[in-house]
């Protein structure tokens, strides 16, 4: 049986998926299932998920209709919500009974051996999941846990020194690359994101982030912004440091880079 390579970026705001010939996303919101008094016209981001004897709402319907509907904003991604989002992602784009090589990610500061092991233990193996009434089975035979943002820097393969700055909903990751090499000492995660700092404008968010980056990194090299709000943030970052661009595939950049890492791993194994 052929193995399907799939990349899932489990963002706290949305789950992004890249596989051969397909991309997908849905909001990373989960809550309890409840019977509705009036029928809801279900959209593509309204999901009823059955897993391990429990039923959940996932996506927009969880936000609207679950009493417990919420995005989980803890720093680690090695938890049950990620498992349900990953399996839901697989269900949406892969055929039933696929054998899967999954590449997923963690914020840079959580990219440690113990955390990666927890994520693999959570995801590897056989699973059965129902989405909107259809049951599928998957066998995750291989799982790699990449570092968000850093993998995007690797995949860009640019010359010289540059910083990738990934302004996520919960975490801001920054990775410094020099001629294709990752410099660990000047890379990391800031413990806030666009949806955890309350009541500040994009302008003040950008100022706060440039302040923190310049404190940690000194003189800033050119910056490539990724993440869902990259194009809106660019003009504000440019007020403080001139060489700033928004990546043209900013929203999917992490997921796309995870996918490219998976392709690279398969090619390296063949060689
Ligand atoms: N097309 C868009 N235009 C404007 N804002 C967007 C767009 N897509 C996403 N966003 C917003 O940008 C922010 C960051 O989104 P992103 O998808 O990068 O975060 P995430 O990956 O889910 O979070 P984290 O990386 O912290 O886990 C969120 O607040 C999201 O609502
Ligand atoms: Mg993200």
Verbal overview:
This protein has 7 helices and 15 strands. The strands form 2 sheets. The protein has a 9-stranded mixed β-sheet, with helices on both faces. Strands 10, 11, 12, 13, 14 and 15 form a 6-stranded mixed β-sheet that branches. The longest helix has 18 residues, at 253-270. Helix 4 (150-156) packs across helix 7 (253-270) and helix 5 crosses helix 6 (230-237). The protein has helices at residues 60-65, 80-93, 113-123, 150-156, 202-217, 230-237, 253-270; strands at 3-10, 14-19, 22-27, 30-32, 46-51, 54-59, 98-106, 125-131, 134-147, 161-167, 172-178, 181-182, 188-190, 223-226, 244-246. The protein folds into 2 domains: 3-147, ATPase, nucleotide binding domain (Nucleotidyltransferase, domain 5); 150-251, Nucleotidyltransferase, domain 5 (2-Layer Sandwich). The relative contact order is 0.15. It is an alpha+beta fold and 271 residues long. It binds adenosine-5'-triphosphate and magnesium ion.
Largest sheet: 9 strands, mixed
Show unreliable segments.
Answer: none
CATH class of the largest domain: Alpha Beta
Number of DSSP E strands:
15
Shape: globular
Number of domains: 2
CATH architect. name of the largest domain: 2-Layer Sandwich
If you average the pLDDT, what whole number results?
96
The CATH topology of the largest domain turns out to be Nucleotidyltransferase, domain 5
